[in-house]
Design a protein that fits this description.
283 residues, Rossmann fold, 2 domains, six-stranded parallel sheet, binds guanine
């Protein structure tokens, strides 16, 4: 029986801390503001954005939603970002990904002012992370590190295997585990003998986006298993990248889906937004 890594409980602790900080800033006359941009009507994106707005409201962070139609042009989106970059009461800007196919995601990320990039997707912030000198950490990997810390799981010297190499999760996750002195391997769709590699992991992070991708034979007995997936199974039910029922008895710790990594992502976004507000107010 594995111990469940309870993202709801850990995120609640982070959010309570953020709320206290936001209140203290308000006392000093500083309000904290986040702009959330969503383009089109991707239902998953809509859910994520709603969760982020709700969490902002609970923490006392002012959120402004910019819901743009799916046929928004690149110029219109860049022009909105330019306006928000200049708006002093907005400390953080988040453009929910993925964007509709006609929009250039890289150019959109590059247009967000680095000091308001609370997702930490901008090349400047990615560079800061690489050299271990960051203001913002990408929310999902940072949330996972926070959860490991909370449960006193130390990555130092451990075999850490990340499945997935996205800019949002896989690559920065590997970097944070490396900074925590883990011995890190990144696996992806071209990895040969994947199960052999993952079965050596003391800490296994699955970020592939395929339901039940990680099966019991891919997991070392006693491993810590982190599931970043937010997938739908054959019945349309929310599930993760890990075959939870089969893997849980083998693991020492495991994240549930839902209630594992997801709530941590939102909590870390709030933390980054407060960090942005402090930096912009020279606090
Ligand atoms: N899409 C999936 N995860 C994220 C995230 O953390 N931030 C943004 N902006 N879009 C996402």
């Amino acid at each position: 029986m594995a111990i469940l890594l309870d993202g709801k409980a850990v995120s609640a602790a982070v959010k309570a801390q953020v709320k206290t900080e936001v209140a203290a800033l308000k006392e000093q006359g500083v309000s904290v503001g986040l702009a959330v941009i969503i383009v089109g009507d991707n239902p998953a994106s809509r859910t994520y954005v709603n969760n982020k707005k709700k969490a902002c409201a609970e923490a006392g962070i002012v959120s402004e939603e910019y819901a743009l139609p799916a046929d928004t042009s690149q110029d219109e989106l860049l022009s909105l970002i330019d306006t928000l970059n200049r708006k002093p009461e907005i400390n953080g800007i988040l453009c929910q990904l993925p964007l509709p196919a006609h929009l250039d995601e890289k150019a959109v990320i590059a247009a967000i002012a680095a000091e308001k990039d609370v997702d930490a997707f901008h090349a400047v912030n990615v560079g800061h992370i690489m050299i271990g000198d960051h203001t913002f950490l990408p929310c999902t990997p940072a949330g996972i590190m926070e959860m490991l810390h909370f449960y006193k799981i130390d990555a130092a010297g451990k075999a850490c295997v990340v499945i997935g190499r996205s800019n949002i999760v896989g690559k920065p996750m590997a970097m944070l585990l490396l900074q925590a002195d883990g011995t890190v391997t990144i696996c992806h769709s071209k990895t040969q003998r994947l199960a052999e590699v993952t079965a050596r992991a003391d800490i296994l992070v699955a970020a592939v986006g395929i339901p039940h991708f990680v099966t019991a034979d891919m997991v070392k007995p006693g491993a810590v298993v982190i599931d970043v997936g937010m997938d739908r199974d054959e019945n349309g039910k929310l599930c993760g990248d890990v075959d939870f029922a089969a893997v849980e008895p083998k693991a020492s710790y495991i994240t549930p889906v839902p209630g594992g990594v997801g709530p941590m992502t939102v909590a870390m976004l709030l933390k980054n937004t407060v960090a942005a507000a402090k930096m912009q107010n020279n606090l």
